[in-house]
Amino acid sequence: MLSRSYPGNTGGAQFSILKWADFLAAQGPWTVIDKPVVPPSGDLHDYMSWSPYSWPNCSELGNTTELPLPQVWSDCPYYLRDGLFNPDVRMINNTGHFNAMADAVWMNSLAWAMTKINRYAQNVATFLNVWFVQNSTAMNPNLIYSQMRRGPGRGQLGAHTGELDLKCMAKIANAILILRNGKSIYWTHELDQGMINWCQRFIEWFTTYWIALEEAVAKNNHGSYYYSQLASHQLIANDIEGARQTIRTYFNTIYMTQVTATGEQPLEAPRTRPYHYRAYNIIAMMTNARIGEYLGLDFWDWKGFQEAGIKEALDFAISVPPGKENADELYQPIAGVAAKYGDPDGKYANFLANADPRYPAAPYFLWCQPFSESGLLSARPGWSPKRDSAVKFAAKTTTATLSVVAVVINLVI
């Protein structure tokens, strides 16, 4: 990215990145202290979230009128409904705010790398300073209260599944590497040291506290994202050898059983949204492989115990119809696999051309290179990728899609 040498057919993708950068920046900054419920610690600087698939059942309480929400939260037993999101969770939106901040930081860092316009780098610096460094707004470096289960007898701590809440830390690491190595005037020594200090403290918590360690041994996507988060924090903290060891550990342990000989992911397939969870874990696997590549390690062709890996997992996933799930969750992994393994018969490019003819204007088309645009640009002479990108962008008013498709990072300096 910092070389500013991009294929000529990526103009639409570049335009989309600039539009996303401006759109997201206008919504910030974000801070962890912005929540209406105080964590059990009494400190708003502690990150807090509620379990997204946890629902109350008040039928046994004998009430004849609707209970006020605080009483529901404390008195009604909660139970898990896998894959069914409880909208009450967004009442405490630290998760949404963190994801939006990570998206804004990522897109603005790319915009700065492409244009060298300083306002983009300034946006990155501001958002990171407010979330992580500035004393009045900074997040405490732990996830003790992430994905708390409400209800009687639940205690005052979160769950190991809550470690997923910072899954987008890879975007932040990539953004910091871009500004740090690009020597942006807005990436000051003070901010750099502040992020290093924060990450060092988080790593200490993340590798010693029992909640986090339960996630470290999870064999499904939770474990995959644990290692991507740990390596991302280590990159920011300049612990290069530590990051290498993290990636080696992932690929030599839980990765080894994540994909069967057919390419199926047996720990994701039984979930209520298998299409989503297959894509979700493929994204984590690819993120770890990209981090490894940046660190001089090559795990792209690493196979598990059944002689299958990332490519086989993607090939199986695209063979399964999405049903009622969001098909676009696989689009960026498809482009990423094609860019890494090649696409000699056009299988991946044709898949995307049929699924989403506008894909050459998607942001991921820039960082998933080399990859074909399926002849769409020449086949549609009246089509401008920039104009089409603008139309597509205008139709989206939230960051939900961006959060899905911009997880896989391309570590570039």
TrEMBL record:
<dbReference type="GO" id="GO:0042597">
    <property type="term" value="C:periplasmic space"/>
</dbReference>
<dbReference type="InterPro" id="IPR008929">
    <property type="entry name" value="Chondroitin_lyas"/>
</dbReference>
<dbReference type="InterPro" id="IPR008397">
    <property type="entry name" value="Alginate_lyase_dom"/>
</dbReference>
<dbReference type="Pfam" id="PF05426">
    <property type="entry name" value="Alginate_lyase"/>
</dbReference>
<feature type="domain" description="Alginate lyase">
    <location>
        <begin position="34"/>
        <end position="318"/>
    </location>
</feature>
<dbReference type="GO" id="GO:0016829">
    <property type="term" value="F:lyase activity"/>
</dbReference>
<keyword id="KW-0456">Lyase</keyword>
<protein>
    <recommendedName>
        <fullName>Alginate lyase domain-containing protein</fullName>
    </recommendedName>
</protein>
<keyword id="KW-0732">Signal</keyword>
